[in-house]
Amino acid sequence: MPSHHTLVETEAAVTGRLANVDINADAMHAVSSIHRAANASRNHMMNTVLRPHDLSWTGFVVLWSVWIFDAPETREVADSAGISKATLSGVVKTLSARGWLTRSQSSTDKRFAHLSLTPAGVALMEELFPRFNALEEELISGLTPEEVDVLTKALRKVVTTAESMSADGPRPESGVTHG
């Protein structure tokens, strides 16, 4: 029995298991597909672009955030990467030991620290990102330009809806209701 189930196998098993449960199957399949697509694309990127540099997905996202936002505060990087400040601390330690990142205290408030890429970190990102983007292009190569546009807009709506929701439900301005 394989340890990996295909999308079709998983959906068939879920449909069988939940046949008598009152759920919104379309919503479940849509969100499940978002997660599966994210995991599949992340694993492909890690195995092809990041692994040769012994770089984890989280390490790459941290480097990316620092590269794009130019010396952000650590709390901003943790938020951007979707990780805790404690996890960021370990990632920063690893990336700093490899010579790609530096951490410095804020000159205006000692409670805050900023992250910056070293010249080696900049060189790494300038080398990695074009290859990373080429794989992004490859991953969507089966879609028409119109499908890419629809997909992008739909996923951005999901993201903005999720970002607008609080822990106890949607905020009134999100336009999302349950009932």
TrEMBL record:
InterPro entries: HTH_MarR-typ (IPR000835), MarR/SlyA-like (IPR039422), WH-like_DNA-bd_sf (IPR036388), WH_DNA-bd_sf (IPR036390). Transmembrane segments: none annotated. Residues 24-160 form the HTH marR-type domain. It holds the Pfam family MarR. It comes from the Bacteria. Gene3D superfamilies: Winged helix-like DNA-binding domain superfamily/Winged helix DNA-binding domain (1.10.10.10). PANTHER family: MARR FAMILY REGULATORY PROTEIN, TRANSCRIPTIONAL REGULATOR, MARR FAMILY. This is HTH marR-type domain-containing protein. It comes from Dermacoccus barathri.
